[in-house]
Specification:
- This protein has an 8-stranded mixed sheet. Strands 1-3-2 form a 3-stranded mixed sheet.
- Strand 10 and strand 11 form a beta hairpin.
- It is of the alpha/beta class and 501 residues long.
- It is built from 15 helices and 11 strands.
- It catalyses: L-glutamyl-tRNA(Gln) + L-glutamine + ATP + H2O = L-glutaminyl-tRNA(Gln) + L-glutamate + ADP + phosphate + H(+).
- It comes from Lampropedia hyalina DSM 16112.
- This is Glutamyl-tRNA(Gln) amidotransferase subunit A.
Length: 501
C-alpha cells in the first residue's frame, strides 16, 4: 500500500496525517513500516541508514497494531522513526559513526529512544552522522552505510553532489527523501538546524536541559541537546511533547519542568508578535540568494501580523572562537574514555600500555575528532587554561547576556540558519575553518542554551533549500513552534519534494 485515502503517497505525508491514518485503521503499522523499509532499500545510494533490522521493526509494528486494535493505543503508536546513530539502542548497533565503537551494542536505550518507544514509535533503524557529532557536512564518518562497502558521506536528496549538512545529516536526508517521516537529531552548535535547512525540512533544538542527554554519546556536555526533525513544525511539536522531561537519576543537567503539549496552541494567531532582526546576521558573507529568501519570509511574517524589530547581538562574531574552545575542551574530556581498555576498538599491535593508548586513539578516531581533541587538550593545559578556556567561558556568559538584552525588545529572533545553501561534497575538506564558519548563525543560541529551530523558507539560485532560523528565550518552544506553524500554514515550502523522491 503506497497511500492512504488522503491520496498523498505515504512518504509525503506528515506525522499528523500518518498517526491519524494509523489510529483510524486506514493503514496498519506493519504496512507502514514495510513501506518505509522498502523506501530505504530503494534509495540506499543516499547513504542515510547505517543499521536496520526488519524483524525488530516489524515486531514493534505488530505490537502497535495490537494496541490500536484493543483500544489501548499510545499517542504515536505505529509511527515509523529513525534514530541518529549518536543515541544508544538495545536493538541496533550504536557507533557514533566512529571506528572506535564499530559494532557496539548497548545494554540499554537512551532516554529519548525509550520515551519515544513508550509513546508507540516504531524504529526503522539508525541513520548516519558525523563522527561523535563533529562536523557540518556528514562527511566525517568511519561507518559504511547500508549497501556500501566502505565509509561514505550522506548525500543531499535535492542534489546528490551536495552535502546534507551535519552532524544530523543522515536524519535530514532520510526525511527529505521520504525514507522516514521523522527522526531524532542532536544539536551541539547547529547540528539539527543546519541540516534541516540544507535538506528543506523542519527541526528544533530545545532549551538546554529540556531533553535528557542520558544515552546520547557525549561530544560537549554543556552544549549537546536532542530534538526532533520532521517535515513540519506540527510534526516536531507532536514528537517533542514525548521527548521532554526531567531525568534526575540519569542526567543531572535535565531540568524539572511540568509536562507540556506543544501541539495544543499551534493555531493561535501571531498578531503583535515582535520578531527581532539582528543586524549581525545580515552582514558581509551572507549569500544573496539566502538573504533574499530570508527577507521574503520575514515579510510573510509581517503579513501575518508580526512586527519586525531591529536588534543587535554584538558578540555574534566571537561565537566561533568561543565555541571552538569550549566544545573541543569538553570533547577532549568526554572522549578520554575511549582508550582501548574496557570497551570499543583496540589497536592490534602495541609494545606497552602507553603504546596501546597511542595507537588505539590514533587508529580509532578520525581526523576531525583528533583535531578537536588536540585543540581541547591544548586549551585546558597548564599555562593556557586561563588564557583560553576561562576567557571563553566569560565570553559565553556575555553572549547569553546579549540575547537577554535583545529579548527585552522582542519575543523571538529570526535570521538565516547558514550563510549559504549546501555546498558540494568535498568542498570544505581542505580547509576546516570554512566548515567552522558555516555555523556562525547557529552557534550563539547553542552557547546561550536557547531553543532554536529551522524551517523551510525557499530555494537558492542553485535550487537547493534555504532555511529560516527562529530563536526563542528559555522554554519558549511552544511560541517558536506556533510561529513556525503559522508560517507554514501561509506558505508551501515545507510541502516541496526533491525530484525523484
Amino acid at each position: 500500500m503506497s497511500s492512504t485515502p488522503s491520496s498523498k503517497p505515504l512518504h509525503h505525508q506528515s506525522v499528523r496525517e500518518l498517526t491519524t491514518a494509523l489510529h483510524t485503521r486506514q493503514i496498519s503499522a506493519v504496512e507502514l513500516a514495510q513501506h518505509f523499509l522498502q523506501r530505504s532499500q530503494q534509495h540506499r545510494h543516499l547513504g542515510s541508514f547505517v543499521a536496520q533490522d526488519e524483524a525488530v521493526t516489524l515486531t514493534q509494528a505488530q505490537a502497535a497494531d495490537a494496541r490500536i486494535a484493543d483500544g489501548t493505543a499510545r499517542p504515536l503508536d505505529g509511527l515509523p522513526l529513525a534514530h541518529k546513530d549518536i543515541f544508544v539502542t538495545q536493538d541496533f548497533p550504536s557507533t557514533a559513526a566512529s571506528k572506535m565503537l564499530a559494532g557496539y551494542r548497548s545494554p540499554f536505550n537512551a532516554t529519548v529512544v525509550q520515551k519515544l518507544a513508550d509513546a508507540g514509535v516504531v524504529t526503522l533503524g539508525k541513520v548516519s552522522c558525523d563522527e561523535f557529532a563533529m562536523g557540518s557536512a556528514n562527511e566525517n564518518t568511519a561507518i559504511a552505510p547500508l549497501g556500501f562497502d566502505a565509509p561514505a558521506p550522506v548525500r543531499n536528496p535535492w542534489n546528490t553532489a551536495h552535502v546534507p549538512g551535519g552532524s544530523s545529516g543522515g536524519s535530514a536526508a532520510a526525511i527529505a527523501a521520504g525514507l522516514a517521516p521523522a527522526a531524532t537529531g542532536t544539536d551541539t552548535g547547529g547540528s539539527i538546524r543546519q541540516p534541516a535547512a540544507f535538506c528543506g525540512i523542519t527541526g528544533i533544538k530545545p532549551t538546554y536541559g529540556r531533553v535528557s542527554r542520558h544515552g546520547m554519546i557525549a561530544f560537549a556536555s554543556s552544549l549537546d541537546q536532542a530534538g526532533p526533525m520532521a517535515r513540519t513544525a506540527e510534526d516536531c511539536a507532536l514528537l517533542l511533547t514525548h521527548m521532554v522531561g526531567a531525568d534526575p537519576d540519569r542526567d543531572s543537567t535535565s531540568l524539572e519542568r511540568s509536562a507540556e503539549d506543544y501541539s495544543q496552541n499551534l493555531n493561535q494567531g501571531i498578531e503583535g508578535l515582535r520578531i527581532g532582526i539582528p543586524k549581525e546576521f545580515f552582514g558581509d558573507g551572507l549569500a544573496d540568494d539566502v538573504r533574499h529568501n530570508v527577507e521574503a519570509a520575514l515579510k510573510e511574517y509581517e503579513k501575518l501580523g508580526a512586527t519586525l524589530v531591529p536588534i543587535s547581538l554584538p558578540l555574534t562574531e566571537l561565537s566561533i572562537p568561543v565555541y571552538y574552545i569550549i566544545a573541543p575542551a569538553e570533547a577532549s574530556s568526554n572522549l578520554s574514555r575511549f582508550d582501548g581498555v574496557k570497551f570499543g576498538f583496540r589497536a592490534r599491535e602495541y609494545a606497552d600500555l602507553q603504546d596501546m593508548y597511542l595507537k588505539t586513539r590514533s587508529e580509532g578516531f578520525g581526523e576531525e575528532v583528533q583535531r578537536r581533541i588536540m585543540i581541547g587538550t591544548y586549551v585546558l593545559s597548564h599555562g593556557y587554561y586561563d588564557a583560553y578556556y576561562l576567557k571563553a567561558l566569560k565570553l559565553r556568559r556575555l553572549i547569553a547576556n546579549d540575547f537577554q538584552n535583545a529579548f527585552r525588545e522582542c519575543d523571538l529572533i529570526a535570521g538565516p540558519v547558514a550563510p549559504t545553501t549546501a555546498w558540494q561534497i568535498g568542498d570544505d575538506q581542505r580547509d576546516p575553518l570554512t566548515n567552522y564558519l558555516a555555523d556562525i548563525f547557529t552557534l550563539p543560541a547553542s552557547l546561550a542554551g536557547l531553543p532554536g529551530m529551522s524551517l523551510p523558507a525557499g530555494f537558492g539560485a542553485n535550487g537547493l533549500p534555504v532555511g529560516l532560523q527562529l530563536i526563542g528565550n528559555y522554554f519558549a518552544e511552544a511560541r517558536l513552534l506556533n510561529a513556525a506553524h503559522r508560517f507554514q500554514q501561509a506558505t508551501d515550502f515545507h510541502q516541496h519534494v526533491a525530484k525523484g523522491f
